[in-house]
Write a structure and sequence with these properties.
- This protein is of the alpha/beta class and about 475 residues long.
- It has 2 domains: about 70 residues, Alpha-Beta Plaits, CATH 3.30.70; about 300 residues, Aldolase class I (TIM Barrel, Alpha-Beta Barrel), CATH 3.20.20.70.
- About 30% of the residues lie in helices and about 15% in strands.
- It contains 13 helices and 16 strands.
- The strands form 5 sheets. It has an 8-stranded parallel β-barrel, surrounded by 5 helices. The protein has a two-stranded antiparallel ribbon with strand order 1-4. Strands 2-3 form a two-stranded antiparallel sheet.
Amino acid sequence: MPAKYHINVRRVPPRFTPLARSTIIDWNEGCLRCARCVKETCPVDAYRKRDFDRIQFVDTIGEICRDCFRCVQGCPRGLIFKALNPFYRQLGDDYWTPEIITVTWYQAESGKIPVSGAGYGGVFAGEGFDSLWTDMSEIVRPTRDGIHGREYISTTIDLGRKPMFLTFDDQGELLIEPPPLLELPLPVVLGEPPLGTDLPRLRQIIAQAAQALGTLAIIRRENISPKLTEAAASLVPFYAKEPDPKDPLLPKLRALELLDHPGVIGRMEALKRRHPQLIVWIKVPADEQAPERVAALSAAGAEVIHLAGSDQARGLGGVQDLHLKDLIRRCHLRLVEEKLRDAVTLMAGGGIALAEHVAKAILCGADGVIADIPLLLSLECRLCRQCGADQPCPVDLGHLNLKRGAQRMVNLMGAWNNQLLEILGAMGMREVRRLRGEVGRAMFKEDLDREIFAPLFARPEGEVRRLGE
C-alpha cells in the first residue's frame, strides 16, 4: 500500500481584515448607562477587540463577531443592530459570489474544512454543480469516515495514455513499450489565473505550491521565466503556437500542453519522437464540437485532453447555456460509446470554485480538474478586476511574500483534499478513480424534474385549465 498522502497545512493569517458578511452598528444617543452593558458580556469580547482598518476603511468588529445576537437582543433601548456589510456585497460577481470568496479565504488561512454551524441553510437545489446530489449512505460506517477513518483512501490519479491490451512473447516479455504515465497524488492541477497583478510573482507562487503539493502547474510557455525553469518538473507549459523543437525547456519537462488544431496529433507525435518522456496534453474548447473532437483525438492516440470551459463553468461557442458538468458528461459518455474511456485522461477546467466541484466534476466523468481563480482568491484577492483596468491592487499582491503565498495555496488544497476524503468516505469509496463517471451514485435535479415531477404535475389531455390555476 502506498504511503498516505499528506498535505502540510500551517495557519497563515491574512494581511488585510477579511470582509465579513455583516457588521455591528451601535448608537450612543439614548444610552441608559446600564451598570452591566451588554457589550461587556460579549462571549468573544468583540467590542473590546474591535479596531478600525484605516487601509480598507472598515470596522473590524464584523470579522470578530460570531452572530450570536446577544447584544442586539439584550440592549434595553435597542441601540445595537446587525446590518449587511456593503463592502461584502460588492465582492466578486454572480458566479464568484461573496460566499465563495470568503470561504476560500478561510480555507487558505487555516487549511481547515469550513463549518457552517447549524447546518446548510440555503436552497435545496440550484444550477450547475448545485443541481447534483451524491449518495452518502456509507457515512454511518466509522471506518470510512473520511479523514478520521482507519481505512486508507487514495486520491491519486494517473495522467497519460493507457494501452487497451498487452501483448507478450513466449518468454512472457512485453512486445510493446508502455507509454509514460504520470501519477499525481491529488486530482487537482493548478492553472494560471486569467487575471491578477504582478503576474511573474504570481506564477512563482503557483510553481512553489505545485512543488509542495506534488502536483503540476499549467503556465503559458512565454510566461515561464528563467527562475521558473528550476521547477520545470512541476510545470506543464502551454504552447499556444507551434513549439520550437530546440526549446531548451523540453528535455526538463514531464508534460506540456498544446492548443487543439487540425494537425495537433502530428505535432504531438513529432514531439514524442524527440522527447519520448513527454506526456502531451491537448486543450480542447468546451464548445458544441467538444464530444466529437474528444472522441476523435482519443481514437488518434491522444494522451491527456483538457476540456476548457469558461471562467463561470459554462460552455463556449454555441453551448454557452450548458454547464460544464453537462459537457463533461457528454464527452465521457462519447468516449464510453467508442470504448476509449480507459485509454485517455480527461481533465476539466473553468469555473472550478469549491472542493465539492472537484468531486462532482469527477463524478460526471472527468479524471481530474484544473483550478485557477481559487488560487488567486487564496491570496486575499477580492476579484475587483481593477488589475484589468491597470489600477492599483487593493490587497497589494505585488508585494506578497512568495513563501507566504505558496503556503496559502497549499492550505487551500489541503482543505479541498480533506473535503474530497470526506465525500469518498461517505460514499464508501477507497479511491478517487472509482468515483469517475459513477452517476449511478448521484441524482441530477434536471433528470428528477423531467422523469419524476413532470409526469406528476402533467394535466390529462383535453383538460381545460381554470382561471387562477
